[in-house]
Amino acid sequence: MTRHAPFFDDIQAHYDLSDDFFALFLDPSRTYSCAYWERPDYTLEQAQRAKIDLALGKCDLRPGMTLLDVGCGWGSTMLRALDAYDVNVIGLTLSRNQHDYIRGQLDRRAPGGRHAEVRLQGWEEFDGQVDRIVSIGAFEHFRKERYPDFFDFAYAAMPADGRMLLHTIVMYTQGDLHGRGISYTRDDVEFLKFIRKDIFPNGCLPFPTSTAFGGVKEYAEAGGFEVERIHALQLHYARTLDHWAAALSEHRDEAIGLCGNETYDTYQRYLTGCADRFRSGLIDVMQFTCVKPPAA
Question: Which of 34, 59, 72, 274 is catalytic?
């Protein structure tokens, strides 16, 4: 596998904006990805916990295993794995703010029987061995040219029967959209350009599956994995974004005080615009359960 330099600058341009700013609209666990309304009356915090449990449950974790969290955000999945699954955890992030925040969270915890650490490191630099991998909301930053290397890395990092849960936003091919009666408008094209330029620099949304262009499923299978399940959560993300936009609007003055009016307006456009496009079916978010076959 070719070793690449991680995209530190692109990630820090977004996630290191201000921890206090993100705290204004995220739930208390600071989970910055699609929630899962397992029950319709859940709060956002409960729905985020349900999403984390949904993802970790697909990993088939067992006490004493080591879980690698690629793109661990502010650590909510790591902390849940420690508390509920009795495993060791290693978190990777390219964000200095997230790294420092998680270090503080881990330092304040009572000593336990399991090892937990967070590293300011990309998967490209990780050379350890783990039992399971979870990655929620990071694949969108990897860029298509690195997909083969990512799956090679994940395959090599786990033993036979290893499992990886990959949670990512996806886009559909024109053929898929046409088949469902959906088409891009000029506003949609301009919005996606805005996201790539002003929100997630150089981000790239994969296709879920495409034999012609290569989707997550095809890249995973080419890397040696069996894709056991593809679980779409499209409308759950629309609802998540509605919650975030409403919370940010409620804290408008604080947000402007922290980051300025332009940043507030930019994020409101981002949150409400994404919600509209998840709701219309233009984009989706999916969990891919990738299983490494048993040894022959």
Answer: 274
